[in-house]
């Protein structure tokens, strides 16, 4: 009888530890996904501005067009 109670205690402790680990795993996955989405959004915005800067530096667009497009990009954020 004593062995059965001891085994049940170990089983319950194991279940609690596994449950806690699963909870932490899900929490880490959610945080990772949110951070990745934020970083990805910022990199897209920077990419459009970087392309615009490169076009201006190459002389493909004039200063007025550069400023107009830059304002449009900043307004859409």
List the helices and strands and how they pair.
Blueprint: H1 2-58, H2 63-75
Describe this structure in words.
This protein has 77 residues and is mostly helical. The chain has one domain. Helix content is 91%, strand content 0%. The protein has 2 helices and no strands. The chain has helices at residues 2-58, 63-75. α1 packs antiparallel against α2 (63-75). The protein is rod-shaped and about 75 Å long. The relative contact order is 0.06. The model has no long low-confidence stretch (mean pLDDT 84).
Task: Name its key features.
77 residues, mainly alpha, 2 helices
Largest sheet: none
Order of helices and strands: HH
Low-confidence stretches: none
Helix content: over 70%
Assign an overall shape.
rod-shaped
Rg over alpha carbons: 27 Å
| Quaternary | single chain
């Amino acid at each position: 009888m004593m062995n059965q109670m001891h085994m049940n205690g170990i089983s319950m402790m194991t279940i609690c530890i596994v449950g806690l680990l699963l909870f932490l795993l899900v929490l880490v996955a959610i945080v990772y996904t949110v951070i990745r989405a934020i970083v990805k959004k910022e990199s897209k915005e920077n990419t459009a501005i970087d392309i615009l800067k490169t076009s201006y530096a190459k002389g493909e667009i004039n200063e007025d067009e550069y400023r107009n497009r830059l304002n449009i990009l900043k307004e859409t954020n």
